[in-house]
Write the structure tokens for this entry.
Amino acid sequence: SQTIHQWPATLVQPVGSPLSLECTVEGTSNPNLYWYRQAAGRGLQLLFYSVGIGQISSEVPQNLSASRPQDRQFILSSKKLLLSDSGFYLCAWNPGAGETQYFGPGTRLLVL
Amino acid sequence: AQSVTQLGSHVSVSEGALVLLRCNYSSSVPPYLFWYVQYPNQGLQLLLKYTSAATLVKGINGFEAEFKKSETSFHLTKPSAHMSDAAEYFCAVSEGGSTLGRLYFGRGTQLTVWP
């Protein structure tokens, strides 16, 4: 069966510090991968998605970036965090178009 | 372009009462439709999915949803609410026929269940 992991579970970082969140999927190959952010009262915002290694599409301009160095690994990064980057970050995957997205447990990020 | 509107950011019901969470969508082609549930500090979990096989879709935990093309709706219902149903619920649409697997989410509905 397939599983999706995210780490860390919780992170507290100062403004201006770098960020690296990792997501890995097991039990499947060539998944579509997604990064979402949930800010309080703002629903789910799609940040990035990837249909293959090295292929990243960005949905909104911001100081975040994403990379997919391996087939089942998706990384969310920032060089300098802002207060507004605080939120709950969710990684998800699906096999392809029209298929259910499966979500990871999330990372709670607090920028102080 | 696809979009989803969830009417009511907060819904409160008594335990044992009917749960009705509303979702309307817009899509230029026949859509795939989803309902997800999120408990505090957890990821989203699939409740049910519509893929054109049947208009009434049954999901986990006693929930079901009916696809009504004429109303562009996909409302979620449960005959009798339990305390454990308290959570946030998200409706999502995926464009049928698209080569991408992305979903478009509504803003969510927080369900509170009173004893």
